[in-house]
From TrEMBL:
Cell compartments where the protein resides: Cell membrane
PANTHER family for this protein: ABC TRANSPORTER PERMEASE YTRF (PTHR30572:SF4), MEMBRANE COMPONENT OF TRANSPORTER-RELATED (PTHR30572)
Membrane-spanning residues: 20-38, 249-270, 290-317, 329-352
Record's bilayer topology term: Multi-pass membrane protein
Taxonomic source organism: Luteimicrobium xylanilyticum
This protein's record includes keyword Isomerase: no
Keyword set includes Membrane: yes
Stored Pfam families: FtsX
Keyword terms: Cell membrane, Membrane, Transmembrane, Transmembrane helix
GO cellular component: plasma membrane
Domain (ABC3 transporter permease C-terminal): residue spans on this chain: 250-357
Protein family: Belongs to the ABC-4 integral membrane protein family.
Protein name stated in the entry: ABC3 transporter permease C-terminal domain-containing protein
Length: 364
């Protein structure tokens, strides 16, 4: 009677025999899981929605502006890219006005060089022609008076630059619009006037911004300014802390209640069927086996209740159109439900294992 296979078989038999107790445990776990999903789960879904709305690229953007006196060049990109909290970094050169000289009233647009960790963020193409070339955003094309992303523009120095493609400017670079990016070779080093750093998350903004002055290698720090969305970063941290703390406290309270309720139910069931456990002890069952039997017969309906309660609550949230918690939360909820039920079964299981076989089997 000591093998794990025997224990599982006996636990399944007891679960089926004690239908009232099994149903009570099942209902309690279902109710607890449903209450957690519909309260904390909904809160976590809302938290994710709120945080995603204030965790956009604009919040995660750090803008470094450097005057020519700072003497910062494009090699700074290689130093900044080593930061673990950086998703993208680009160093834009000083603005140089370009225009379509063949138009009667040409409008100047700023053209900049760019050195970055990933040109794909702007969909920059490869070099296709010899000589100076660049790509323009949709706003820049309209401002220049070009219908298509092709043509020639002229700098204020009289140099012709061929427009060979269209830029897709992401939202965190919108402040540079209208933008023309002049193509440069990967080994070409030039001055950096605007350095844009995109952090991986809002939490990474402050650490990255703190480390930047050490790697900029500016000749004079007073000619450098670093800008971040500090207020939004603080708001992100505040929302995350408040909602997260409330959710954890509520989950802890619910599962403490679950453990207490399961313990009370099992203790009552054991008192009602104490002679059965007395017979098992008289037939040679060890105390460890009895403890395992009680815990296992509790976990079986608890597992079914956790699955049914979690699945049913998710269906309800989806039907109501409310934010859904992620899969990790749902799996963690099921594991916590099983752990709480098993913890609640320990004390009644120990009580059952200590029943005296002689006193329980004595006939009055």
């Amino acid at each position: 009677m000591r093998g794990p296979r025997t224990l599982v078989r006996e636990a399944w038999a007891v679960t089926r025999a004690e239908r009232v107790g099994t149903a009570l445990i099942l209902v309690v776990v279902v109710a607890m899981c449903v209450s957690v999903i519909l309260t904390t789960g909904r809160s976590i879904g809302s938290e994710r929605a709120v945080l995603s709305s204030i965790d956009g690229e604009g919040v995660r953007t750090i803008v470094v502006r450097a005057d020519p006196q700072a003497e910062i060049d494009s090699t700074v990109v290689g130093r900044i890219r080593t930061f673990s909290g950086v998703e993208w970094v680009g160093a834009f050169g000083p603005a140089q006005d370009v225009q379509v000289s063949t138009l009667p009233e040409p409008a100047p647009v700023a053209m900049r060089t760019l050195a970055s960790t990933d040109d794909g963020r702007l969909h920059l193409g490869r070099f296709t022609i010899d000589g100076p070339s660049g790509e323009a955003s949709a706003d820049a094309l309209r401002a220049l008076g070009l219908l298509d992303p092709s043509g020639d523009v002229t700098t204020t120095d009289g140099e012709d630059v061929a427009v060979t493609g269209r830029l897709d400017v992401p939202s965190f670079l919108a402040f540079l619009q209208p933008l023309v990016v002049q193509r440069t070779r990967s080994d070409q080093v030039g001055p950096a006037a605007v350095i844009v750093v995109l952090a991986r998350s809002a939490r990474d903004v402050e650490p990255v911004a703190t480390q930047l002055p050490a790697v900029l290698d500016a000749s004079d720090a007073k000619f450098v300014s670093i800008q971040t969305s500090h207020e939004l970063v603080v708001l992100h941290r505040l929302v995350e802390g408040q909602l997260g703390g409330f959710s954890r406290a509520l989950v802890a309270l619910v599962f403490v209640i679950l453990s207490v309720v399961v313990a009370a139910l099992l203790y009552g069931l054991i008192m009602m069927r104490r002679k059965d456990y007395g017979r098992r002890r008289a037939l040679g069952a060890t105390r460890r086996f009895v403890v395992g039997l009680v815990v296992a017969r509790t976990v079986i309906p608890a597992a079914a209740g956790a699955a049914a309660g979690t699945g049913g609550a998710v269906v309800v949230l989806r039907a109501l159109g409310d934010p859904l918690p992620d899969v990790g939360f749902c799996l963690g909820l099921g594991i916590l439900a099983l752990a709480a039920a098993a913890a609640g079964a320990v004390v009644p299981a120990i009580a059952a294992s200590r029943r005296d076989p002689l006193s329980e089997l004595r006939v009055p």
